[in-house]
Amino acid sequence: MFRTFSVISALPISSLFPYLYFMIKDFGIAKQEEDIGFYAGFVGSSFMIGRALTSIFWGKLADRYGRKPIILIGTFSVIIFNTLFGLSTSFWLAISSRFLLGCFNCLLGVIRAYASEVVSEEYNALSLSV
């Protein structure tokens, strides 16, 4: 179960880079080919900025309302915002969908807290590493 959520959490980070160059090129925002990496950096970093801004908020919500609803919100947000990003037709829609994906991607911290609560004390280190 924990491996499934770790794949869902890592999917938005690692699946982006193989096709981001071609996506930025198709948007036509870069004047020269050398500028494509500049704009790709904005799209790639917008996910982490959104994640950094909201991670404490999601942790507090998980403490208050429980881990399971927050995990479900995070899982569905990955599906919705990754699809929206894949279907984006402009640079700003791509940045916005990646930023919102980062804002709603609350899985990593919540799943680690959940793993430490569910597993017995002797297997705690193993559950957190998995």
TrEMBL record:
Residues annotated as transmembrane: 7-24, 36-58, 70-93
Keywords, sorted A to Z: Membrane, Transmembrane, Transmembrane helix, Transport
Keyword presence, Chaperone: no
Subcellular location per the Swiss-Prot or TrEMBL entry: Membrane
PROSITE patterns: MFS (PS50850)
Record keyword Transmembrane helix present: yes
Topology term for the membrane: Multi-pass membrane protein
Residue ranges annotated for the Major facilitator superfamily (MFS) profile domain, each copy included: 1-130
Protein name as annotated: Probable peptide/nitrate transporter At3g43790
